[in-house]
Each structure stands twice: as C-alpha cells, then as structure tokens.
Write a structure and sequence with these properties.
It is built from ten helices and five strands; from the N terminus they run ααββαααβαββαααα. The relative contact order is 0.15.
Length: 301
Amino acid sequence: MRVVPCLVVVAATLAGCGEDLGTCDISAATQVVYAVDGTPYYAGQALVQYGCAEGVCHSSVAVNDSRKGAPHGLNFDLRPLSGQSTADNIAALRDGVTKVRDEAGNIYSEISAGTMPPGDAGARPAPGLTLASGMPAVDKDGQALSVSTDVGKATVRNWLACNAPVVSGVTGAVGDAATIPSSALVPARVVTVGSTFESVYKNVLAPCASACHKAGGAFPALDLSQDKAYSALVGEAPAPAPNACAGKNNLVTPGSCETSLLYTKLTATPGCGAQMPLGGAPLPASTLDSLCEWIKAGAKQ
C-alpha cells in the first residue's frame, strides 16, 4: 500500500512543532478524502471528526457516559451536510467549525501530547478513508490514518494551521452549507453496496462500529469480526432496558427488513429511539435498498 504523498510531506514538519501550529500548506490541508459511505472530507477534518466526535466524546449528540469526559458544549462536529440535513445538523456543523477554529492550539496540544483522544479512542482510525484515485489513505507504515500516528498528527497540525478549512457539504446539500467561511461543496463518491453480508458489513456496520458501537459500550457492539457481527445481529433481540428498543423486534429478522431493527433504525421512521447514524447524515436510499434486499433474501452469511 502506498503512502498519501502530501501527508508524508506534512509529516516531515512535525518534529519540533511543539504547541505551535507552525506554517500552513493549503494544498495539503485541502486534500479531499472519502469516508466509506462516499462522504468527502478534507483529511484533517476527517481525522478530527472520527477521532474526536462522530456521535461520541466531542459530539453534540453525545450525552452522559458517551461524552467520555468531554466538557459539555465543547463539540467538534464536522460532518458535511447533505440534501437531507436537518436544522440540528446545520447548527452542529456551524458550532463545530467555530469551536475547532477557536480551540485549534489546544486541540493540537492535546493530540500532540497523546492525551486526547483518551484510551482506545486514541487508536481509532478514520474508517476506510480513500483518495480521489481510490487508493487507501494510509500512513507511512500502510496503516489506516489515525490521530495517534505521526502522519495523522502532522495532518491535523497543518489543517489547523490553515484555519481548519472544511468540506461543508456535498453537491446538492442544503444552502446553508455554502455559507460557512473557508468551506467547499464537493461531490459525494457513489458507493455501491451489494446485497451480501460481506458488503453490508464493510459499508454499513464497520463505519458505525468505529464511531459509536464499540464493544462494552451502551449500544450493540459491532466492532467484531465479520462472523461475530453476523451472529450478534441475525435473530438476536435488542439490548434490555433502558435501551429505547428493548422488547421490540429483533435486530435482523430474515425475510423481513420492515421488522428488522438494523434496517428500521436507519430510516426516517425508526420505530424506537433516534434515527441512526446518530448525529450523522442519513444513509443513501440505495444503501438502505441493498440492506433490505439482503434481509429479504434470508439474511444469509
């Protein structure tokens, strides 16, 4: 696997930066990468979103234990807007961009020292990031980018030094997306999700696992191997109370996507609790259709 070219250049500037954000290489700071669902980000933006927010810690939708000690109101939500974005999504992005720019020096100081993100969250990679070429965005050792690696830290430093430019929305996003300073609209990458469990696991479950569904958390654990994730979902009941979906339908009922919580929770009418992904843009209709096809075909492994 090859290294992201401009990220390597940025990494060379890391040594001796300390808490100083240093110089800005705007071309590196505005390198577009794509999440597994096709959402575009600038590389530093993606690392902060997936390392610090995305439903937990510094996220506007994170409460109580899911904040993991992050101060209330100190939210770094940076997910780009789409045509389905709500007023809450817009407000979260505006507030997130403002907070990141206001706290840039502190953010880099904590990340550089390795004190943030804490614990296992610090090793959490931004899931499945790829370049425009389709090549994986990886560090010099071929590992997925994370804010805990030298390349990841250098990427965030440079991005913050450039005043944290953001991909604020995808083409066709709500009009508010274009009004955020130092932002851009970028076409989403079309992601084809096949109606097999392998494809469902890679394109739907794995990204959710890295964000919110960690083992031992308050939500169903999805950060398992593909085989274990299958066994944890098909024919299994939701977690007991106080889970809002306790006593409802099974997570996956083979043959019926309409009564499978894995499917309904991703729709605009989840039936219990909030629509997933929590705080993120709804999954495209094509992805939901493929998930439904897999379930209707018997939810085979």
